[in-house]
Design brief:
The structure holds two protein chains of two kinds.
Chain A lengths: L2 E2 L3 H6 L3 E5 L2 E6 L4 H10 L2 E4 L4 E6 L4 H6 L14 E7 L5 E9 L3 E6 L4 H11 L5 E4 L3 E7 L3 H8 L11 E6 L2 E6 L8 E7 H13 L3 E2 L2 H10 L36 H10 L3 E8 L10 E3 L5 E11 L4 E9 L8 E6 L2 E8 L16
Chain B lengths: L4 E2 L4 E6 L2 E6 L1 H7 L2 E5 L6 E2 L4 E7 L3 E5 L4 E6 L1 H5 L2 H5 L8 E5 L11 H12 L1
Antiparallel strand pairs in B: 1-2, 2-3, 3-9, 4-6, 5-8, 6-7, 8-9
Classes of the chains: A alpha+beta, B alpha+beta.
Chain lengths: 367, 126
Amino acid sequence: MNKKTPLYKLHIQHGAKMVEFAGYQMPIQYKNGIIQEHKFTRENAGIFDVSHMGQLFINGSGHLTDDLEKIFPVNFKNLKTNQSKYSFLMNEQGGIYDDLIITKLKNSYLIILNAACKKQDLEIIKKKLNGKYVLNLDESLSLIAIQGPKAKDVLGKVVSDITNLKFMNGGEFEYDNSNIYITRSGYTGEDGFEISLDNKKAEKFVDQLINHGAKLIGLGARDTLRLEAGLCLYGNDLDEKTSPIEANLKWAIPKSRVGSDYPGSDIIKKQIDNGVKTLRVGIKPETRVIARGNTKIFDQNDKEIGKVTSGTFGPSVECSIAMGYVENNYSPTNTKIFLEVRGKKVPANVCDLPFYKKNYVKGEKNV
Amino acid sequence: MSEVKFSKEHEWITLEGEVATIGITKHATEMLGDIVFAELPEKGTNVEKDGTAGVVESTKAASDVYTPISGEVVDINQIIVDDPAKINEDPEGAAWFFKLKIKDASELDSLMNKEEYEKFAKETSS
């Protein structure tokens, strides 16, 4: 039996088509369909129920920061309270168990985990921390994202003082006589926020966002939005056999952590120093043909050089878009490649990511 | 023009003389969601009843289009290739897929009428 999020009833009321996703019943789309939901998010403000994702709190003082440095390639010593970082939980080969966001709270850390990975992540992290700290994968909290150019206006009508938040920073705010935690972040390439609040308040909160003009957006549009923004989906674009360097996410490994001790750190350093055999790239087919995950990639001489990991039609860029891994010498922008779709070789070009230019806000004021 | 007939693969077909017009049903488009790509057979090719004769892709997935009758492709609707969103707008009208010069009109006998198809669609989608 699949789990339901606290917003299940609201999804149904709004005409959601529900699907199973990572053990949860989640909305793939609502009545207007994926393209309209996608465009609404780019122009207005879309609400995403991401309550299926894990919210892991690690409490502890003393050596917690040192111990976390042995797990994640984050420069924890420079991390300020309420600052967030995108990072990875890796195996000894540098493969990715999960990609995640770590936020430093006053006396703890909050890690947002992918729904499908969260239980395994918890076990791995728990084992590495040797039972020294209190770990809580908090199921009493919902996670709501609001994304789009009007996200700050809509959210600002429901919660005071959020406009000063900077991108990849969070803070405690008051809502309905309780404290909630909000970060300025997201997965769409738009300005936006993620709000962690009590399950019991989630429906009322989302109802208020809707009353102020935002609309519920399903997983279908979440996928087209993130792909246009060049962002990876764990399980498609990232997995246990792929390192952050191969995934072209070197920017997420701080220089000070190259070669320092965490799982896979030796391999990461080697890959940074010597290069990698395959690299994640953006791909633009020359026709409208869509190259889905696992589509084989060839060069002009019919040599197989890689495979697509995500592909769809980009509603804002109005063309077919994809990401995939190719042998390193085919990774430069504008390299001509061929995608095998239904037995035919479709010409395509390696291109820069993101497909859609991002619109993140660094914060209205210097605070 | 003949009565509209329907296949279990959610195609509709009408017959005028010996030329059949084929498209996908409104019910099919509702199941697929926003269609963003359409591939049609080439003019002059022969297609066999229940064989694939095209592809439609939504933002979510690709689906084959089957022909409910055998024949030679005599026309294709280029409009839906250039602007696949038209399929969602008017699937059972302007967004027809292809026309066939048919071989054997009796192949239509096994297809459903509108009432039967609506019942079938309702049963299979729940």
